[in-house]
């Protein structure tokens, strides 16, 4: 049996946190599953609630993932192995939140799982692990993050924030002209805040909406998605989709997915 639930953040953190999400997998301890992580513009924090141990490892290197981890923007796909019974509480942040909450240049967290103990006290992390309910875990995390934001008192980069939420829809050169800033300067600021370049962010946003189309079967033929989102042709869409997922669109549609959230899913 699998339990999955998304919980909205408290009002005071809605500009930094997209949502909390809880996952419980009640399976035979000898069984394993694969966590397929797709490219994702939303950084995430994951605290595994397994008595201070980790239940996941990289499928290629077999390296264990820290039981409390922080991962920045994922610009590439990856696979992880989940062992038997599993439980976690996680946070999906908006792209700018890593720098503002943790004081970390976001590109250092890109495509990797950093040990959360490098940023937060070990006793607090264990307090979250052993909290009896998800409601209590979320309250603890929300209060701690709110205190961190007040302590750091960082002002968001207004140009980067504008690009993240609306500027990416416009032609890139027009955006730079509107901002009255050189491309080199803007790229540097954007990478520090988000972890990737503005151009990669635009590509990931396009991938995200095409992925949603596939998931909801809201299309007649795959080529319709290619043209709707301004891919050069079907081949271009296939290449871009495989870069971000490790699968072609056809393979993705045929794969049995037990549970899926924003940009990851469980398979046998």
UniProtKB/TrEMBL annotation:
Keywords: DNA-binding, Transcription, Transcription regulation. InterPro entries: AraC_XylS_family_regulators (IPR050204), DUF6597 (IPR046532), Homeodomain-like_sf (IPR009057), HTH_AraC (IPR018060). It comes from the Bacteria. Transmembrane segments: none annotated. It holds the Pfam family DUF6597. The keyword Lipid biosynthesis does not apply. GO terms for molecular function: DNA-binding transcription factor activity; sequence-specific DNA binding. Signal peptide: none annotated. The keyword Transcription regulation applies. Residues 181-255 form the HTH araC/xylS-type domain. This is AraC family transcriptional regulator.
């Amino acid at each position: 049996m699998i339990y999955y639930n998304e919980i909205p953040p408290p009002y005071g953190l809605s500009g930094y946190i997209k949502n909390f999400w809880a996952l419980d997998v009640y399976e035979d301890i000898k069984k394993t599953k694969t966590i397929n992580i797709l490219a994702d513009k939303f950084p995430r924090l994951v605290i595994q609630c397994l008595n201070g141990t980790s239940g996941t490892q990289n499928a290629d290197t077999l390296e264990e993932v820290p039981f409390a981890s922080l991962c920045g923007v994922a610009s590439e796909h990856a696979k992880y192995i989940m062992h038997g019974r599993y439980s976690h509480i996680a946070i999906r942040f908006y792209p700018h939140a890593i720098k503002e909450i943790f004081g970390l240049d976001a590109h250092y967290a890109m495509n990797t799982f950093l040990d959360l103990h490098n940023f937060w006290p070990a006793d607090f992390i264990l307090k979250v692990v052993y909290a009896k309910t998800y409601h209590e875990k979320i309250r603890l995390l929300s209060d701690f993050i709110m205190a961190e934001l007040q302590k750091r008192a960082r002002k968001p980069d207004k140009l980067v924030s504008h690009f993240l939420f609306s500027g990416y829809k416009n032609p890139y050169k027009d955006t730079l002209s509107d901002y009255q800033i050189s491309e080199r300067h803007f790229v540097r600021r954007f990478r520090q805040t988000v972890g990737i370049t503005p151009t990669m962010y635009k590509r990931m946003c396009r991938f995200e909406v095409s992925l949603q189309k596939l998931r909801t079967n809201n299309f007649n033929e795959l080529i319709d998605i290619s043209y709707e989102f301004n891919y050069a042709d079907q081949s271009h869409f296939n290449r871009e989709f495989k870069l971000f997922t490790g699968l072609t669109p056809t393979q993705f549609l045929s794969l049995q997915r037990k549970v899926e959230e924003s940009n990851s899913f469980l398979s046998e």
